[in-house]
Amino acid sequence: MLTDMLSRIAEDYVYERAKPFSDNKFGDFVRKDVAEEAKKTISLWPFDLTVKSSVGAGNWAAVPWLAFFDPLITKSATKGFYVVYLINAQDQIVTLSMNQGTTEVYNEFGRQKGREVLKRRATDMAERIPDYSSQFDRSGIDLGSNDDLPLGYQAGHSFGRTYSLDELKDAQFTNDLELMLKAYRALVDRGGTLPVDFMHEEAGTSDIEETRRYILSRRIERSEKVRREVLSHRKPVCECCGFEPVKDYGYTGPLVNTPLDVHHAKPLNQLAEGETRRYKIPDDFLILCPTCHRMIHKQQNPSDLQALRKKLRFKLMREVNYPML
Q1: Per-domain residue ranges for the chain?
Q2: How many Cα atoms are found within 13 Å in the side-chain-facing hemisphere of 39?
Q3: Which of 29, 126, 180, 277 has the most Cβ atoms closer than 10 angstroms to its Cβ?
Q4: How confident is the model at residue 180, as a pLDDT?
Q5: Paired residues of 287 in beta bridges
């Protein structure tokens, strides 16, 4: 069980990290076995998440962790926000935390100021989803280390629950994880860490629900995972104006880098918060050139491709037999 595995890490990590890092069986156990068990634990729940666990990269980490990443936000513990189990092996406690990528913030603001930024964002995250954060502990956490990354995790902690080894065996553990993942989904749906004024400006509306749906739709469009999958199912041609990078520019690069946009065509008013299926590939998407993509978002109904085609007032040069072609 996942609880048993987390307990083993908390109990054995101090001893194991005294051994060489390379080809360490305990390290493989954390990276592979623990991650696989976590995937099984959430497999029947309605979440599309990437699961990773770590004891460090190249050297033993001060704090081992098991994290759950929404691909719309991040695939790495270095950036974005995510749910994570942080293990204080000194005190043999495990903390379930709504947390943030420390490395990205440190790179932009430096260590000391970066931790101040993380603390502010942690407060904002909790206040954006009070219906969930109120069910957890919002006090600070102690990871038993003064290294830069653990101090960043402590600053970036928004809310969560800390367990002793005895408490890991409690049935509440699984309920807490499911609730925390629901909180994660709600935070993504409500804009994550983006300032509300920025979201309103981006969406072009002052209505908060419409703004949140717009921001989520744009996150879906910009997801590398979504883009790759949609382009593998649909022809790389603008479905409005017919722009075709291979023919019109002689594009020969990777399909994922083609100068076309993936448009999430599902009507925003049908994208409800907490929806278990946020999108269906390829049905909910169109392939558009950047210009047509901007124009379809200006329509009252950004899913109406026929309306956009009726507005089109130009032809590609190759369609009118331009002499140069």
Answers
A1: 2-189, 196-320
A2: 12
A3: 180
A4: 97
A5: 262
CB 102 within 8 A of CB 78: yes
Tell me the one-letter amino acid at 127. Answer: E
Tally of CB atoms within 10 A around 313? 5
Question: pLDDT per residue over 160-195, tens digit each?
Answer: 999 998 888 777 899 999 999 999 999 999 988 887
- Partners of 82 in beta bridges: 99
**Residue 76 CB burial class (10 angstroms; 0-12, 13-18, ≥19):** middle
Q: Is the dihedral of CA 216, 218, 221, 222 positive or negative?
A: negative
Neighbours of 29 (CB within 10 A): 17
Q: What is the mean pLDDT of residues 218-237?
A: 88
State in words which class domain 2-189 has: alpha beta
Separation in Å, CA 162 to CA 41, 187, 280: 19, 21, 37
Q: How many residues does the chain have?
A: 325
DSSP result, 11-23: HHHHHHTTS-STT
The per-residue pLDDT for 9 is 95
How far is C-alpha 115 from the geometric centre of its chain's CA atoms? 21
